[in-house]
Amino acid sequence: MGVEQYYIILLVILFLLAIFGIYIGVSNDAVNFLQSAIGSKAANLNFVLIIAAVGIFLGAGFSNGMMDVARQGVFTPEYYSFQEIMIILVSTMMMGVILMDLFNVLGLPTSTTVSLVFGLLGAAFAVATIKINQAPADAPLTYGILLNTEKALQVVLAIFISVALAFFFGTFIMYITRILFTFNYKPQLKYIAGIFGGVALTAIINFMLLKGMKDTSFMNDEAKLWVDLHTGSILLYSFIGLSILMQILHWLKVNTLKIIVLVGTASLAFAFAGNDLVNFIGVPLAGFSAYEYANVSGHLDVNMLMGGLKESAHTSLFVLIASGAVMVFALFTSKKAKNVIKTSISLSRQNDGDEMFSSSAIARNIVRGSRRMGTYIVQNTPQSVKKWTASRFNKEGIALENDAAFDLVRAAVGLVVASSLIAFGTSLKLPLSTTYVTFMVAMGASLADKAWGRESAVYRVSGVINVVGGWFITAIAAFIITAIMAVMLFYGGMIAMGIVVILVALMLIRNQISFSRRTKKEDKNQIVVDLLASEDEENSLALLRKYSKTNSIETIEYIMERYTQVIDAFCSEDLKILRNLSGKIDSHKDDVKKIKRLGTLGIRKLSPSDAFERGLYFYQANDFIGEMIYALAKISVACEEHIANNFNPMSVEQKEELAETKKALNDFLSDCKLILENEDFESRRELYINNKWLLTDFHEMKRRQLKRVKNENASTKVSMVYLSIIQETHTLVTYTTNLLKVNRKLLQNC
Question: Which of 179, 206, 207, 563 could form a disulfide with 419 if both were Cys (CB 3.0 to 4.6 A apart)?
Fold first, then answer.
């Protein structure tokens, strides 16, 4: 393969990665402009997506296409050759696709800007290090000459500024707004619908002028100057006109809050497409420009310095529209986008529900400290003030649209505050991140709305810590990954490129497999969602029964799989597998706790009689599931400790007995699983009502082992672990039997 053909292939790879990157990037960034509308059910999902799609198309089409960040924002191109520039750009693009896809799989929102800037910085740093080491003594190079670290420092500063300011103002403004509106806000609108609508839409217009349209292609210098000179007048007249319009619409029975939310959604989508497009197509376009400069003589000069990249380049309208089309396609088809949006909405949900994150020590300490501070403030607040404030936050009569996660007031406040902060930051030349601002405003607003109750606060705080921590991990990982890739490509050439491409493809496939596995769990989660949203008592009972049945079947399947793995690993003395299994089984205990918690929330949806009777059976089923997992954990830990301490192995006879026990247990569990799946409790009742045949075998095994101990034919340690396995297997059979009995009562009204 010739050199020119090689770089043409690299350009093709860059543009293919760009298309994939746009799809992946929108999947993550969609949360910025969809969360408020979807979480508040301002309109049906398809209509919200259409509104956002219009904003994206307009934003992409009117974008100025200035891709300077990828051309000169992080490095000084006049010191890098075409070959080195391509290494930097390819490394950055591959890293971006991998990292963003991983965050999408995990359902965590992150910043494409951080990924781009730190990716470019990592690759440029690696190449710069090589160049410095290879530079002649009479012409030394330094990082200060080769790198532009100011941009990276701005992004780091933006993280702290965005997180702190957005959370503070989201909390403060939502608290004041809720005091004005209360949760039963509809009666209040007749007095302030016009003023609130005018303020909200004016703030959104200000955001559009300063952030969304300031760099669009149709805004020439004269138009920008006119807007700058008349911004105050524009906003004043907008406020007056929109306030009157909103009040009239309210009198005409139009829900003005929905208008605010949908307009805000479109404006954020417009700004996202117009300003963040560089994060997706800037790198391949910079690569194409570099190729044109290196090939200006008709012969590709890979050693030509790329000073030409210092010139600003405008992107053709066709490329912008095509990029917008890919964005819109991703918006409507990406399951991963819905996964990321679900995370953000779950953390800001008003009511209890399926918590996506487990508690952590940091979160528990933060919640405990906050409670102490809150208690101190309450104790020193006058009783009259406390009583009045409590009346404003009374959730009786809360107006949620079709069981939405939060109401339209909070959705409108979230959009207005986020838009205002971004516009204000833009006016001060502060590099605020749209992702950081929208997410932290949502979290602050949910805190002010008292959505983080004592039973959910620790989970919500853990979630926020996970997301914010992910933002910093994005920067660090982007820098390290691209640096490693750049070094590989610099020294490995075409062979290294082939290896890297294969590795990237394998990682993307692995991410997709992981996402598919997580998606399969959504079927059971959907039962929970439907149960918590149900208002019909009969339907709620049917869903609770389905939830219990599903959990019971999955537990039996889990026990069969893990028990077999533990016994096999113990007999083969495989410590690594045993440690891995013990960790997985221990983690599964948290899943059992979650099942109990969600079931408790679901029981609230039942009629009083069903809640008392069927709820009792559900609790019992969950208790038996918990005992089964704990019995399995005891077996795993006992086996792991025995092998870790290098105690004597079991005899051949003992291994054969355990193999028979494993088969007997699996046969029993398989039959129990079929009974549950078919709800065939009567015809096979003897199996789980009278299982003495199996329990008798266990007693006989214990007697044989105790006889070996008596005759001093068995090691004490081996005897202890052997008897422990048999005893806990006995426990598994007992509790599985009980699990079927209570499921029979729950499912068949027995």
Answer: 207
